[in-house]
Amino acid sequence: MHNYQDILQKLQQLELKLRRELLSIIKDISPDESQLAHTAALGDIIDYLSQVKLANTDLFTQLMKLDAALCQLDLGLYGLCSDCEMDIDAGRLQIDPTEQRCSNCQQKYLNEHRLELRLNH
User: Fold this and answer.
1) Taking the C-alpha atoms of 65, 9, 70 and 51 in order, what is their torsion angle to the nearest 10 degrees?
2) Which InterPro entries match (predicted)?
3) For residue 120, what pLDDT band results from cuts at 50, 70 and 90?
4) E strands of 1-121, at which residues?
């Protein structure tokens, strides 16, 4: 099915990229915290971004998805849809190794979110 080492390597490469992005953001808002980008656990980084009001950023979303994918990999659940638990198409995972939903559930999720947005305005 999925090669654990290949997936782990892809996820680690993505983590390095996201940590570099985080470092550039932290340098601007809180230079004293720049070590956080190098040494902190993903959960601590996610908590920090919430505290400094950056939870609505793309970086925050990517870190959340990365953390979930790493947890799923550790649990042997990587590649399963978080909604229906069916296999996520390999092509989707190739494009985004942190993908959490199969294409059907992703479409349902997007449709529900659009409805929520309309109801909130």
Assistant:
1) -50
2) Znf_DskA_TraR, Znf_DskA_TraR_CS
3) low
4) none
Phi-psi region of 111 (alpha: psi -120 to 50; beta: other; left: phi over 0): alpha
Residue for token pair 């190098």: 38
Annotate 17-84 with DSSP letters as a single string.
Answer: HHHHHHHHHHHHH-GGGTTHHHHS-HHHHHHHHHHTT-TTSHHHHHHHHHHHHHHHHHHT-TTB-TTT
pLDDT for 28-42, tens place per residue? Answer: 888 888 888 889 999
Q: pLDDT tens for residues 54-105?
A: 999 999 999 999 999 999 999 999 999 999 999 999 999 999 999 999 999 9
**Looking at the chain, how many residues does it have?**
121
62 and 18 in contact (C-beta within 8 Å)? yes
